[in-house]
């Protein structure tokens, strides 16, 4: 597990990241969602330890190997896939052999492109070579920044299958940053919504319909963190967000009083979160 405590990053007077708390668990896939400029890439830089931030990142093991696919997957155009992988490994000081290179190219679905020059690859193949690079050293934390950027529908599906079938592992944490909500929802266990450098909501990806409403009264015997996610706006109104099945259980409780319940798709929820001052309540404490 990787724990982020009160992470902040400032440039001049601007708070690029502000008071982020997060726990990234082994075996889980996290979908980092948020508009342009929300701080997603900066959060990756914190995890990669390439910027000077405030706060604490603690890891179970001090040497968690990290793999990353960040922005456009640059490689040497006149070198082959295998040569690019080997060069990447030597730059990153990662041990490699011909069999590791062959294995990785086969994991990412490029077994026949070993001797192909990078410049001759399609965008999807370039992206997959980028993933192969990220997998060198068998990372326990894998950061994928917009992995489907620039891919056609077939390439997007291939990337989804690659993540689902070959990258997920009980020993690995994967964080995917994406603007493609539907796509990310197909591979993610937990959504991390970011806005203005803050994590505003962490939510399990359980169903595609969510119930959103205003809380008038909370039941006494409710374990809030486990049973219900509460959000607050700056007028101190409290809201809840629940999966439909969970809501059906909770609404049977007499002392749970609510109003204005609406069904939200992931897209509607995203728009609501990004166009309001709503924030998960535990972020307030
Ligand atoms: N070193 C820096 N100096 C100045 N501004 C910075 C620096 N790093 C990040 N920023 C600013 O911080 C904000 C967050 O940037 P970041 O790239 O993390 O956002 P993002 O959520 O990844 O956006 P996108 O979805 O467009 O990739 C942006 O407004 C960016 O311009």
From TrEMBL:
Record InterPro entries: AAA+_ATPase, ABC_transporter-like_ATP-bd, P-loop_NTPase
Keyword ATP-binding in record: yes
Pfam family membership, one: ABC_tran
Record key words, sorted: ATP-binding, Nucleotide-binding, Transport
Signal peptide: none
SUPFAM superfamilies: P-loop containing nucleoside triphosphate hydrolases
SMART domains xref list: AAA (SM00382)
Start and end residues of each ABC transporter domain: 2-221
GO molecular function, one term: ATP binding
Family: Belongs to the ABC transporter superfamily.
Protein name: ATP-binding cassette domain-containing protein
């Amino acid at each position: 597990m990787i724990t982020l405590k009160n992470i902040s990053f400032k440039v001049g007077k601007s708070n690029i990241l502000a008071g982020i708390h997060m726990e990234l668990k082994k075996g889980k896939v996290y979908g980092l969602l948020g508009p342009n400029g929300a701080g997603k890439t900066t959060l990756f830089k914190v995890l990669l330890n390439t910027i000077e931030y405030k706060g604490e990142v603690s890891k179970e093991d001090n040497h968690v190997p990290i793999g990353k696919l960040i922005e456009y997957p640059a490689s040497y155009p006149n070198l082959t896939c295998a040569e690019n992988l080997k060069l990447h490994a030597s730059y990153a000081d990662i041990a490699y052999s011909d069999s590791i290179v062959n294995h990785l190219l086969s994991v990412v679905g490029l077994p026949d492109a070993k001797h192909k020059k990078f410049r001759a690859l399609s965008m999807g193949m370039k992206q997959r070579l980028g993933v192969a690079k990220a997998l060198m050293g068998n990372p326990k934390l894998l950061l994928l920044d917009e992995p489907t950027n620039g891919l056609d529908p077939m390439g997007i599906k291939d990337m989804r299958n690659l993540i689902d079938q070959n990258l997920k592992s009980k020993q690995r944490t994967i964080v995917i940053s994406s603007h493609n909500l539907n796509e990310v929802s197909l591979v993610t266990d937990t959504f991390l919504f970011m806005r203005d450098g803050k994590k505003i909501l962490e939510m399990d990806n359980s169903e595609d319909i969510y119930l959103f409403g205003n809380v008038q009264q909370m039941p006494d015997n409710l374990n809030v963190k486990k049973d219900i996610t509460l959000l607050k706006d700056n007028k101190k109104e409290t809201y809840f967000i629940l999966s439909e099945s969970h809501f059906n259980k909770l609404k049977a409780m007499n002392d749970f009083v609510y109003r204005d319940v609406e069904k939200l798709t992931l897209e509607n929820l995203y728009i609501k979160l990004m166009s309001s001052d709503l924030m998960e309540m535990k972020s307030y404490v």
